[in-house]
Amino acid sequence: FFFSPRNFTMPFVKIQKSKSYYKRYQVKFRRRREGKTDYRQRKRLCCQAKNKYQSPKYRFVVRFTNRQVICQIAYTLIDGDRILTSASSNELPRYGLSCGLKNYGAAYCTGLLCARRLLQKVGLDDVYEGNDEIDGEVVKTEVGKTTYYVDEVDEDKRPFRALLDVGCKTTSTGCRIFGALKGAADGGLDIPHSEKRFPGYDRDSKEYDADMHRERIFGGHVGEYMEYLEEEDNTKYQEQFAGYIAAGIDADGLEELYEGVHEKIREDPSPSEKKSFTPDKSFKRKAKLTLEQRKAAVQAKKDAKIAELEEDDE
Question: Does this model's pTM top 0.85?
């Protein structure tokens, strides 16, 4: 039997997606297609009760890039988000931290800087000074039926409340996002949270080791790895911690370093002055040739080629 498409009949195939399906198909939002925005989460973070009129819900936005930590206080309007204040770990060299700008300790410092900068901007930095003694514990104060995540609540001015916005990041236990959250909470912001995602929390026994979290804030895990790598593989240590070695930072001096950074941030959280940018105007782009000039150039090439061929013939 010779197979031919003419004498082959297709068996019955059920149409899974009909023409009406494709006619009714609606594409998702662009930022959902790109995997950048979780709109289910965003709706709950931004939508405000109507009886609160136009009071915005503020979000404490934390994002990690390949090189830095970015913390922002944002609120939503109908035509887009507005940023009230922001802080980046690229600013930490001003305060004495020149390397390791993406780890848990740097995330804590960036959150602290963002919180102190915001409270200074809205005039609450003297009322809510935050938690100076960093012990890793969750600070709460109950006033009536409301829980505030600050030490004390002023009678006249309530604390500035913001909700944590993690974006599309996985909120696993010990994630660096919660380092930034803890820094902002210790800086005086009222951010609802619990200890269940902090480093040191054991889900099985439901116990929280605050000392482990404190050690992580002061870079204890980095110091341990530095000591381990220096003993086991010194070449790899020289490569991975080249920035620390150049800055003269060793494993024993990390806690003291971070303490100094926290103090300097509290002293002056204001942003640095913007440097005036002057572009280099020495480069001049060549003017585009006109049609006549291009034709003349082509004709000159042709003439040169013809003359070259004539010489070869002679």
Answer: no
